[in-house]
What does this fold into?
Amino acid sequence: MGAHPQEQRRGRGRLRPGRGFEFVTVRGGPQGNGINRAFRRTPLTTRLTSKHGAHLISNVKSTAFKRQNSVPWNDYLGENFSVRLQQFFRFMKLVQDNQLCGVVHCLFDPFKHVTSMTLSNQAQKIMEVPNAGGNSVLSEVLSCEMLKRCFGAQLLKTEMEVCYFPEGGCITDYTCRMFDTTLGVSVTRAMKYKGHYTMEDAERLLMKKLTGVLQSTQNTLEKWSKQLLHIWATSSHVANTITRAYDLIPEEVKSNTVILVTVANKSREIFMNK
It folds into this structure.
């Protein structure tokens, strides 16, 4: 039989029969020798597989995109999109430990437009229910879908279901349960229509969003342990700029918020005002 269509198109792995869209091998490796290398599965109930034995980046405060082949990665391959995450177990620890904060990057590669995707019930709910009037519904829908597919996140409440007192301040986009931790999730987009995305742009975005996270956590009547700030970035340059700017943010503003920066340079719809 010929290769699976997904294998032919991506040229990086194969699909195991009977396993749906579970990514089980990665083509090539740190030496770039083009050999198929099978890796053991992560013990978590997700569709991520873990790349072991690569060298970790040391002596840095956060995880930026250095040389992609020099850091561990995990891949998710599904019907709608694939995701490559650097340092999966670090991300899990950041979420589970209430005292930790930090930045983790991943790459998002869609196979189809979001309006043509087969979404989970919880992502479909975010798509359909009223929100607070923002212009980034698709980014929130894909955020929820990605966290569910890759990390088993379960939606708890949508934006308008979360209660606050006093009202009128910053609010979170949705709440979920992930890695046995209750999270508030705030979704934003890092982009610039004209000009070069600068450190000042990144620092301004982080200060605004992290301060908003602190306010919504303080005012909420829900019980979450910490918040995840999910940032969609238009390029790896933007993602790296955000990471460098993060190291300049005061510790009291970072608090225990985890930042997941997702590069989605093939998903223009995320960055449109819809």
